[in-house]
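At this stage, I wrote out one protein's amino acid sequence and its C-alpha coordinates, and that material follows here:
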Amino acid sequence: MRSRKYAAHPAFVVLSVTFLAMLVSAGVRSTPSVMLLPLAIEFGWTRSAISFSAATGILLYGLTAPFAAALMHQIGIKRTMLIGLTLMTLSSALSFWMTAYWQFQLTWGLISGVGSGAVASVLGAAVVNRWFKERKGLAMGLLGASTATGSLIIIPVLAWLSSGVFWRPVILFVTCSTAILIPLVMWLVSERPEDKGVLIYGESQRAEMADSGPYERWMALSVLKRAIAKPVFWLLSGSFFVCGLTTNGLIGTHMIAYCGDHGIAPVAAGGLLAAMGLFDLFGTTASGWLTDRYNSRYLLAGYYGVRGASLIILPFINFENVSLGLFAVFYGLNWIATLPPTVRITNEEFGNAEGPVVYGWVQVAHQMGAATAAFGAGFAREWTGTYDPAFVITGILALVTTVAMLAPHKAKGQHVASA
Protein backbone atom coordinates (compact mmCIF):
# COMPACT_ATOMS: atom_id res chain seq x y z
CA MET A 1 0.00 0.00 0.00
CA ARG A 2 1.38 3.41 -0.95
CA SER A 3 2.23 5.80 1.84
CA ARG A 4 4.00 8.63 0.06
CA LYS A 5 2.54 12.12 0.26
CA TYR A 6 2.36 13.73 -3.14
CA ALA A 7 0.08 15.97 -5.13
CA ALA A 8 -1.74 13.07 -6.83
CA HIS A 9 -2.82 11.47 -3.56
CA PRO A 10 -6.52 10.56 -3.92
CA ALA A 11 -7.27 12.70 -0.87
CA PHE A 12 -6.75 15.78 -3.03
CA VAL A 13 -9.11 14.48 -5.72
CA VAL A 14 -11.82 13.97 -3.11
CA LEU A 15 -10.98 17.37 -1.61
CA SER A 16 -11.31 19.07 -5.01
CA VAL A 17 -14.68 17.53 -5.87
CA THR A 18 -15.96 18.26 -2.37
CA PHE A 19 -14.78 21.87 -2.79
CA LEU A 20 -16.83 22.21 -5.99
CA ALA A 21 -19.90 20.53 -4.49
CA MET A 22 -19.85 22.77 -1.41
CA LEU A 23 -19.23 25.84 -3.58
CA VAL A 24 -22.29 25.13 -5.73
CA SER A 25 -24.39 24.22 -2.68
CA ALA A 26 -23.59 27.58 -1.09
CA GLY A 27 -24.42 29.31 -4.37
CA VAL A 28 -27.80 27.58 -4.39
CA ARG A 29 -28.56 28.91 -0.92
CA SER A 30 -27.75 32.45 -2.05
CA THR A 31 -29.91 32.30 -5.18
CA PRO A 32 -33.11 33.70 -3.56
CA SER A 33 -31.27 36.95 -2.79
CA VAL A 34 -30.77 37.51 -6.53
CA MET A 35 -34.38 36.59 -7.34
CA LEU A 36 -35.84 38.85 -4.63
CA LEU A 37 -36.54 41.82 -6.89
CA PRO A 38 -37.48 39.89 -10.08
CA LEU A 39 -39.98 37.74 -8.19
CA ALA A 40 -41.46 40.79 -6.49
CA ILE A 41 -41.90 42.47 -9.87
CA GLU A 42 -43.43 39.48 -11.68
CA PHE A 43 -45.64 38.02 -8.94
CA GLY A 44 -46.14 40.97 -6.60
CA TRP A 45 -44.79 39.06 -3.60
CA THR A 46 -43.55 41.27 -0.77
CA ARG A 47 -39.91 41.46 0.22
CA SER A 48 -40.68 39.96 3.62
CA ALA A 49 -42.58 37.02 2.02
CA ILE A 50 -39.66 36.18 -0.27
CA SER A 51 -37.27 36.64 2.66
CA PHE A 52 -39.37 34.19 4.68
CA SER A 53 -38.90 31.48 2.02
CA ALA A 54 -35.18 32.23 1.92
CA ALA A 55 -35.09 31.99 5.71
CA THR A 56 -36.92 28.65 5.58
CA GLY A 57 -34.34 27.26 3.18
CA ILE A 58 -31.48 28.56 5.31
CA LEU A 59 -33.00 27.06 8.47
CA LEU A 60 -33.53 23.65 6.86
CA TYR A 61 -30.00 23.87 5.44
CA GLY A 62 -28.83 23.99 9.04
CA LEU A 63 -31.30 21.50 10.53
CA THR A 64 -30.30 18.92 7.94
CA ALA A 65 -26.60 19.12 8.86
CA PRO A 66 -26.44 16.83 11.93
CA PHE A 67 -28.66 14.21 10.29
CA ALA A 68 -26.55 14.40 7.12
CA ALA A 69 -23.40 13.91 9.23
CA ALA A 70 -24.97 10.84 10.86
CA LEU A 71 -26.03 9.60 7.42
CA MET A 72 -22.45 9.95 6.16
CA HIS A 73 -21.36 7.86 9.14
CA GLN A 74 -23.92 5.14 8.38
CA ILE A 75 -24.38 4.94 4.58
CA GLY A 76 -21.30 6.81 3.42
CA ILE A 77 -20.11 10.23 2.32
CA LYS A 78 -20.54 9.58 -1.40
CA ARG A 79 -24.17 8.45 -1.20
CA THR A 80 -25.07 11.37 1.03
CA MET A 81 -23.50 13.82 -1.43
CA LEU A 82 -25.44 12.27 -4.31
CA ILE A 83 -28.73 12.51 -2.40
CA GLY A 84 -28.10 16.19 -1.65
CA LEU A 85 -27.13 17.09 -5.22
CA THR A 86 -30.14 15.22 -6.63
CA LEU A 87 -32.53 17.09 -4.33
CA MET A 88 -30.99 20.45 -5.27
CA THR A 89 -31.25 19.66 -8.98
CA LEU A 90 -34.86 18.51 -8.61
CA SER A 91 -35.94 21.56 -6.58
CA SER A 92 -34.43 24.13 -8.94
CA ALA A 93 -35.73 22.34 -12.04
CA LEU A 94 -39.29 22.20 -10.67
CA SER A 95 -39.24 25.87 -9.71
CA PHE A 96 -38.75 26.84 -13.37
CA TRP A 97 -42.51 26.45 -13.84
CA MET A 98 -43.71 27.91 -10.54
CA THR A 99 -46.57 30.41 -10.62
CA ALA A 100 -47.66 30.49 -6.96
CA TYR A 101 -45.94 31.43 -3.72
CA TRP A 102 -46.45 27.99 -2.13
CA GLN A 103 -44.46 26.46 -5.01
CA PHE A 104 -41.57 28.84 -4.30
CA GLN A 105 -41.74 27.89 -0.63
CA LEU A 106 -41.78 24.17 -1.48
CA THR A 107 -38.89 24.21 -3.95
CA TRP A 108 -36.54 26.91 -2.60
CA GLY A 109 -37.63 26.67 1.01
CA LEU A 110 -38.13 22.94 1.69
CA ILE A 111 -36.52 20.70 -0.94
CA SER A 112 -33.56 22.95 -1.71
CA GLY A 113 -32.94 23.56 1.99
CA VAL A 114 -32.68 19.84 2.76
CA GLY A 115 -30.60 19.09 -0.34
CA SER A 116 -28.07 21.85 0.20
CA GLY A 117 -27.85 20.92 3.89
CA ALA A 118 -26.51 17.50 2.89
CA VAL A 119 -23.69 19.19 0.95
CA ALA A 120 -22.59 21.72 3.55
CA SER A 121 -19.68 22.30 5.92
CA VAL A 122 -20.44 19.07 7.83
CA LEU A 123 -19.50 17.31 4.61
CA GLY A 124 -16.16 19.11 4.70
CA ALA A 125 -15.57 18.06 8.32
CA ALA A 126 -16.35 14.42 7.49
CA VAL A 127 -14.09 14.39 4.41
CA VAL A 128 -11.18 15.99 6.26
CA ASN A 129 -11.47 13.59 9.23
CA ARG A 130 -11.57 10.56 6.93
CA TRP A 131 -8.86 11.52 4.42
CA PHE A 132 -6.35 13.73 6.27
CA LYS A 133 -4.09 13.22 9.26
CA GLU A 134 -1.80 16.18 8.53
CA ARG A 135 -2.85 19.67 7.43
CA LYS A 136 -6.41 19.18 8.63
CA GLY A 137 -6.81 22.86 9.40
CA LEU A 138 -5.59 23.90 5.95
CA ALA A 139 -7.87 21.38 4.23
CA MET A 140 -10.84 22.53 6.31
CA GLY A 141 -9.93 26.13 5.51
CA LEU A 142 -10.08 25.40 1.79
CA LEU A 143 -13.45 23.68 2.10
CA GLY A 144 -14.72 26.43 4.37
CA ALA A 145 -13.67 28.99 1.79
CA SER A 146 -15.72 27.15 -0.82
CA THR A 147 -18.97 27.87 1.03
CA ALA A 148 -18.42 31.61 1.10
CA THR A 149 -16.78 31.69 -2.32
CA GLY A 150 -19.78 29.88 -3.76
CA SER A 151 -22.31 32.18 -2.18
CA LEU A 152 -20.43 35.35 -3.12
CA ILE A 153 -18.76 34.66 -6.47
CA ILE A 154 -21.78 32.94 -8.07
CA ILE A 155 -24.07 35.83 -7.10
CA PRO A 156 -22.68 38.29 -9.73
CA VAL A 157 -23.18 35.65 -12.42
CA LEU A 158 -26.75 35.14 -11.27
CA ALA A 159 -27.29 38.92 -11.03
CA TRP A 160 -26.08 39.31 -14.63
CA LEU A 161 -28.40 36.50 -15.77
CA SER A 162 -31.34 38.12 -14.02
CA SER A 163 -30.60 41.58 -15.51
CA GLY A 164 -32.70 43.00 -12.68
CA VAL A 165 -36.09 41.58 -13.82
CA PHE A 166 -35.58 37.99 -15.04
CA TRP A 167 -35.39 34.94 -12.79
CA ARG A 168 -35.78 31.88 -15.05
CA PRO A 169 -32.23 32.12 -16.52
CA VAL A 170 -30.99 32.03 -12.92
CA ILE A 171 -32.95 28.82 -12.30
CA LEU A 172 -31.56 27.23 -15.47
CA PHE A 173 -27.97 28.04 -14.49
CA VAL A 174 -28.38 26.61 -10.98
CA THR A 175 -30.05 23.43 -12.27
CA CYS A 176 -27.24 22.76 -14.75
CA SER A 177 -24.54 23.46 -12.14
CA THR A 178 -25.92 20.96 -9.64
CA ALA A 179 -26.71 18.34 -12.30
CA ILE A 180 -23.14 18.38 -13.67
CA LEU A 181 -21.74 17.57 -10.25
CA ILE A 182 -23.69 14.31 -9.90
CA PRO A 183 -21.55 12.28 -12.38
CA LEU A 184 -18.37 13.94 -11.05
CA VAL A 185 -19.13 12.69 -7.55
CA MET A 186 -20.04 9.23 -8.88
CA TRP A 187 -16.76 8.87 -10.79
CA LEU A 188 -14.20 10.68 -8.65
CA VAL A 189 -15.21 10.45 -4.99
CA SER A 190 -13.99 7.35 -3.15
CA GLU A 191 -15.48 6.48 0.21
CA ARG A 192 -12.24 5.69 2.08
CA PRO A 193 -8.46 5.81 1.41
CA GLU A 194 -8.23 2.00 1.50
CA ASP A 195 -10.67 1.86 -1.43
CA LYS A 196 -7.90 3.45 -3.54
CA GLY A 197 -5.10 1.41 -1.97
CA VAL A 198 -3.53 4.30 -0.08
CA LEU A 199 -3.09 5.47 3.49
CA ILE A 200 -4.71 8.55 4.98
CA TYR A 201 -2.76 11.61 3.84
CA GLY A 202 0.04 12.15 6.35
CA GLU A 203 0.18 8.57 7.69
CA SER A 204 3.36 6.55 7.35
CA GLN A 205 1.65 3.29 8.28
CA ARG A 206 -1.89 2.09 8.67
CA ALA A 207 -3.36 3.05 12.01
CA GLU A 208 -6.04 1.03 13.69
CA MET A 209 -9.48 2.41 12.90
CA ALA A 210 -10.84 4.36 15.82
CA ASP A 211 -13.81 2.86 17.58
CA SER A 212 -16.87 4.70 16.31
CA GLY A 213 -19.11 3.20 18.98
CA PRO A 214 -22.16 0.96 18.59
CA TYR A 215 -24.66 1.52 15.84
CA GLU A 216 -27.33 4.01 16.87
CA ARG A 217 -30.53 4.29 14.86
CA TRP A 218 -30.96 7.94 15.84
CA MET A 219 -27.28 8.80 16.06
CA ALA A 220 -27.77 12.54 15.48
CA LEU A 221 -30.11 12.84 18.47
CA SER A 222 -28.01 10.57 20.70
CA VAL A 223 -24.90 12.62 20.00
CA LEU A 224 -26.80 15.83 20.70
CA LYS A 225 -27.94 14.48 24.09
CA ARG A 226 -24.32 13.84 25.06
CA ALA A 227 -23.05 17.13 23.63
CA ILE A 228 -25.46 19.47 25.41
CA ALA A 229 -23.98 18.40 28.75
CA LYS A 230 -20.73 20.20 27.85
CA PRO A 231 -20.52 24.01 28.17
CA VAL A 232 -18.20 24.17 25.14
CA PHE A 233 -21.11 23.01 22.96
CA TRP A 234 -23.14 26.06 23.98
CA LEU A 235 -20.16 28.37 23.45
CA LEU A 236 -19.64 27.07 19.91
CA SER A 237 -23.37 27.06 19.11
CA GLY A 238 -23.87 30.60 20.41
CA SER A 239 -20.89 31.93 18.48
CA PHE A 240 -22.01 30.19 15.30
CA PHE A 241 -25.52 31.62 15.70
CA VAL A 242 -23.89 35.05 15.52
CA CYS A 243 -21.71 33.87 12.62
CA GLY A 244 -24.80 32.97 10.59
CA LEU A 245 -26.55 36.14 11.67
CA THR A 246 -23.70 38.28 10.33
CA THR A 247 -22.84 36.41 7.10
CA ASN A 248 -25.22 34.57 4.75
CA GLY A 249 -28.30 35.66 6.68
CA LEU A 250 -27.58 39.40 6.53
CA ILE A 251 -24.90 40.11 3.91
CA GLY A 252 -25.64 37.12 1.67
CA THR A 253 -29.38 37.75 1.56
CA HIS A 254 -29.72 41.54 1.81
CA MET A 255 -26.48 43.21 0.67
CA ILE A 256 -27.63 43.60 -2.94
CA ALA A 257 -30.91 45.16 -1.81
CA TYR A 258 -29.05 47.34 0.74
CA CYS A 259 -26.76 48.62 -2.00
CA GLY A 260 -29.84 49.23 -4.16
CA ASP A 261 -31.18 51.53 -1.45
CA HIS A 262 -28.03 53.61 -2.00
CA GLY A 263 -28.38 53.74 -5.78
CA ILE A 264 -26.01 50.87 -6.62
CA ALA A 265 -27.16 48.56 -9.44
CA PRO A 266 -27.58 44.81 -8.73
CA VAL A 267 -24.71 43.80 -11.03
CA ALA A 268 -22.35 46.24 -9.30
CA ALA A 269 -23.52 45.06 -5.88
CA GLY A 270 -22.99 41.49 -7.02
CA GLY A 271 -19.46 42.45 -8.01
CA LEU A 272 -18.90 43.69 -4.46
CA LEU A 273 -19.98 40.32 -3.10
CA ALA A 274 -17.70 38.59 -5.62
CA ALA A 275 -14.78 40.63 -4.29
CA MET A 276 -15.68 39.50 -0.77
CA GLY A 277 -15.71 35.91 -2.02
CA LEU A 278 -12.28 36.29 -3.58
CA PHE A 279 -10.79 37.70 -0.38
CA ASP A 280 -12.56 35.02 1.64
CA LEU A 281 -10.77 32.35 -0.39
CA PHE A 282 -7.49 33.71 0.96
CA GLY A 283 -8.80 34.59 4.42
CA THR A 284 -10.40 31.25 5.26
CA THR A 285 -7.50 29.27 3.80
CA ALA A 286 -5.11 31.35 5.90
CA SER A 287 -7.37 30.75 8.90
CA GLY A 288 -6.95 27.01 8.38
CA TRP A 289 -3.16 27.44 8.32
CA LEU A 290 -3.32 29.50 11.52
CA THR A 291 -5.63 26.96 13.17
CA ASP A 292 -2.95 24.28 12.75
CA ARG A 293 -0.60 26.49 14.80
CA TYR A 294 -2.40 28.81 17.23
CA ASN A 295 -5.10 28.92 19.90
CA SER A 296 -8.51 28.54 18.25
CA ARG A 297 -10.41 30.65 20.79
CA TYR A 298 -8.06 33.61 20.34
CA LEU A 299 -8.43 33.35 16.57
CA LEU A 300 -12.23 33.30 16.88
CA ALA A 301 -12.19 36.32 19.20
CA GLY A 302 -10.20 38.28 16.62
CA TYR A 303 -12.44 37.25 13.73
CA TYR A 304 -15.67 38.22 15.48
CA GLY A 305 -14.15 41.50 16.66
CA VAL A 306 -13.17 42.59 13.14
CA ARG A 307 -16.53 41.47 11.76
CA GLY A 308 -18.52 43.34 14.40
CA ALA A 309 -16.60 46.56 13.88
CA SER A 310 -17.06 46.31 10.08
CA LEU A 311 -20.84 45.90 10.37
CA ILE A 312 -21.24 48.77 12.81
CA ILE A 313 -19.22 51.11 10.60
CA LEU A 314 -20.92 50.18 7.30
CA PRO A 315 -24.16 52.22 7.74
CA PHE A 316 -22.09 55.36 8.37
CA ILE A 317 -19.96 55.26 5.21
CA ASN A 318 -20.96 57.08 2.01
CA PHE A 319 -21.17 53.91 -0.17
CA GLU A 320 -18.65 55.13 -2.73
CA ASN A 321 -16.09 52.88 -4.40
CA VAL A 322 -13.17 53.31 -1.98
CA SER A 323 -15.14 52.80 1.24
CA LEU A 324 -17.08 49.85 -0.15
CA GLY A 325 -13.84 48.38 -1.48
CA LEU A 326 -12.24 48.58 1.98
CA PHE A 327 -15.31 46.95 3.49
CA ALA A 328 -15.12 44.15 0.91
CA VAL A 329 -11.46 43.50 1.82
CA PHE A 330 -11.87 43.41 5.61
CA TYR A 331 -15.21 41.62 5.60
CA GLY A 332 -14.23 39.22 2.84
CA LEU A 333 -11.04 38.09 4.59
CA ASN A 334 -13.14 37.38 7.66
CA TRP A 335 -16.33 36.02 6.03
CA ILE A 336 -16.10 32.40 7.14
CA ALA A 337 -12.64 32.33 8.72
CA THR A 338 -14.45 31.14 11.87
CA LEU A 339 -15.00 27.67 10.39
CA PRO A 340 -11.55 25.97 10.75
CA PRO A 341 -11.00 26.87 14.44
CA THR A 342 -14.62 25.97 15.26
CA VAL A 343 -14.24 22.55 13.61
CA ARG A 344 -10.92 21.98 15.40
CA ILE A 345 -12.36 22.73 18.82
CA THR A 346 -15.32 20.45 18.06
CA ASN A 347 -13.12 17.53 16.99
CA GLU A 348 -10.82 17.93 19.99
CA GLU A 349 -13.71 18.05 22.43
CA PHE A 350 -15.91 15.33 20.92
CA GLY A 351 -13.55 13.12 18.89
CA ASN A 352 -13.25 12.35 15.18
CA ALA A 353 -16.21 9.94 15.13
CA GLU A 354 -18.81 12.18 16.79
CA GLY A 355 -17.16 15.51 16.02
CA PRO A 356 -18.78 15.97 12.58
CA VAL A 357 -22.23 15.20 14.02
CA VAL A 358 -21.71 17.65 16.89
CA TYR A 359 -20.48 20.20 14.37
CA GLY A 360 -23.68 19.54 12.45
CA TRP A 361 -25.68 20.67 15.48
CA VAL A 362 -23.41 23.71 15.84
CA GLN A 363 -24.18 24.38 12.19
CA VAL A 364 -27.90 24.28 13.05
CA ALA A 365 -27.29 27.25 15.34
CA HIS A 366 -25.44 28.97 12.49
CA GLN A 367 -28.39 28.61 10.15
CA MET A 368 -30.86 29.61 12.85
CA GLY A 369 -28.90 32.84 13.11
CA ALA A 370 -28.83 33.16 9.33
CA ALA A 371 -32.57 32.56 9.08
CA THR A 372 -33.19 35.13 11.81
CA ALA A 373 -31.22 37.74 9.90
CA ALA A 374 -32.67 36.80 6.51
CA PHE A 375 -36.20 37.38 7.74
CA GLY A 376 -35.49 39.96 10.43
CA ALA A 377 -33.50 42.32 8.22
CA GLY A 378 -36.20 42.21 5.54
CA PHE A 379 -38.85 42.93 8.15
CA ALA A 380 -36.76 45.76 9.63
CA ARG A 381 -36.36 47.28 6.15
CA GLU A 382 -40.14 47.33 5.63
CA TRP A 383 -40.82 48.61 9.15
CA THR A 384 -38.16 51.34 9.40
CA GLY A 385 -37.42 52.02 5.72
CA THR A 386 -33.72 51.20 6.14
CA TYR A 387 -31.40 48.26 6.79
CA ASP A 388 -29.16 50.32 9.10
CA PRO A 389 -30.53 49.02 12.46
CA ALA A 390 -30.05 45.41 11.36
CA PHE A 391 -26.37 46.00 10.55
CA VAL A 392 -25.64 47.84 13.79
CA ILE A 393 -27.40 45.26 16.00
CA THR A 394 -25.65 42.29 14.40
CA GLY A 395 -22.31 44.09 14.68
CA ILE A 396 -22.83 44.59 18.41
CA LEU A 397 -23.65 40.89 18.84
CA ALA A 398 -20.41 39.98 17.07
CA LEU A 399 -18.45 42.12 19.55
CA VAL A 400 -20.25 40.38 22.44
CA THR A 401 -19.11 37.05 20.96
CA THR A 402 -15.52 38.30 21.00
CA VAL A 403 -15.79 38.87 24.75
CA ALA A 404 -17.31 35.41 25.25
CA MET A 405 -14.43 33.77 23.41
CA LEU A 406 -11.86 35.52 25.61
CA ALA A 407 -13.59 34.50 28.86
CA PRO A 408 -12.03 31.56 30.75
CA HIS A 409 -13.38 28.16 29.71
CA LYS A 410 -12.52 24.65 30.75
CA ALA A 411 -11.42 22.64 27.76
CA LYS A 412 -10.49 19.05 27.02
CA GLY A 413 -7.51 19.85 24.82
CA GLN A 414 -4.54 22.05 25.58
CA HIS A 415 -4.93 23.66 22.17
CA VAL A 416 -8.20 25.23 23.30
CA ALA A 417 -7.05 26.17 26.78
CA SER A 418 -3.77 27.81 25.99
CA ALA A 419 -1.83 29.20 23.09
Q: What stands out?
A: The chain is about 75% helix and 0% strand. Residues 1-6, 413-419 have pLDDT under 50 and may be disordered.
